Amino acid sequence: MGKMKEIFIQQQEEKELTPDYPDEPDMCSNKSPQILCPNCNKAMLDVDFATNEATCYRCGQDFVKVGKNTVKYK
């Protein structure tokens, strides 16, 4: 057997031994995402998951949640 084939088989065996768990969905967790306000950089955003809207109560800017930890200006 060639050296590359041995390395490949070893990597495949290591993959089988370590389980590949998926990321925890947002709504299954009891913790809310901590997104820092990109406008003032001083407060965390309060996210409403029903409408995917976020608000910073320190500066008053409104945002729309577009990803897991990503927001854009409204």
How does this model look, in words?
- The protein has one helix at about 5-15, and strands at about 45-50, 55, 60-65, 70-74.
- With about 70 residues, the chain is an alpha+beta fold.
- The chain has a domain at about 35-74.
- It has a 4-stranded antiparallel β-sheet with strand order 1-2-3-4, with no helix packed on it.
- A hairpin with a 4-residue loop joins β1 (about 45-50) and β2.
- The longest helix has 15 residues, at about 5-15.
Question: Brief overview, please?
Answer:
The chain has 74 residues and is α+β, with helices and mostly antiparallel strands. Helix content is 20%, strand content 18%.
Low-confidence stretches: none
**Intertermini distance:** 60 Å
C-alpha Rg (nearest Å)? 21 Å
The best one-word shape is elongated
Give a quick account of the main beta sheet: strands, pairing sense, barrel closure. 4 strands, antiparallel
Order of helices and strands: HEEEE
Strand order of the largest sheet: 1-2-3-4
Helix and strand composition category: alpha+beta
Beta-strand portion reads 15-25%
Specify the helix fraction band: 10-25%
Average pLDDT taken over every residue: 82
Contiguous helical run count: 1
Q: What is the total tally of β strands?
A: 4
